[in-house]
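Hi R.,

Here's the chain you asked about this morning:
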Amino acid sequence: MKITGTFIDEITHDIPSSNWGEREWEADFQAMKYIGIDTVIIIRNGYRNLATFNSKVLSSNFDMINAPIDLLELFLSLSDKYGINLFFGTYDSGKYWMNGDYQREVDINKAFTEEVNDKYGHHPSFQGWYISHEIDTYNPDVMNVYRQLGNHLKGLRDIPILISPYIHGKKQFAEDPTSLEQHKESWDKVFAEIRDCVDIVAFQDGNVDYAELYDYLLVNSKLAKKYQLTGWTNVETFDRDVLIKFPPINWPALCHKMDAATRSGVDKMITFEFSHFMSPFSIYPAARHLYDRYCESVGLTPLNAGVESDTIRLGEILSDRLENSIADTSALSNM
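And here is the predicted structure, written out as tokens:
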């Protein structure tokens, strides 16, 4: 199974911004398309005082920093151009829901998503919603957030709704990790409550040891099928096992995780996230090498991006290869 989706995290929380403009983002979308990515998920379109565009709703509630580039329009336009489905990520205040004011978080997001649907709903690539509020266990208050937001989003635009929870595993919670059985019991309860307002669940895979990852993925896959949810997996392409926060993952570890996901029976592999940790244009040199190793593994000619990192040169190569691929496909269809 290949990685066919990625988050986009430019309104960042704990990783640096790439500070890309239109040229760099288009090159990155070409690089995604080249390896078969057909889905992008903006992890959040607003976080605290930053947003992907100058939102009237957010500006009326917060002292927002001006957005000099309308990134949402850019991402949607590029998705339209390259035939990629885009999932819109909601607003995370970073405070209300963390401090127990869940209704305030919901109300702001209702107004925010109405504004977005009115302004950007004409884009054909606008094909999904992503509720950005992550949990690792059953939380009755967040269940209410999911229900209210999910029903509201479906009323605005009846397209799939995605969440990407994390596992309460030993890599992040060494003092009190959740056992496999506890994880199963908790998420059985969660799925029973949200199956009517969420369509897709993509668990993050980075918080458990590699030796136990398959067991957790299998539980996730079986629970999704039990409640008729679509089960994806979020294959993290950053490394939690080193002291630096966070470099690209090493290639053998990524291979191990992709293999575990394939064997577990998930419906799709997405990643957090391509542009920082796997792109040939990444600010991290190791990500450029990771892209080439991945290309080799799926039978594509590598870009040698780890050696030559010039955006214009690599962009021209990708553009030529995409054009040739389209031409080959058209020729076959006419035979």
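One quick note: Residues 3-333 form a domain with the TIM Barrel fold (CATH 3.20.20.80).

Cheers,
M.
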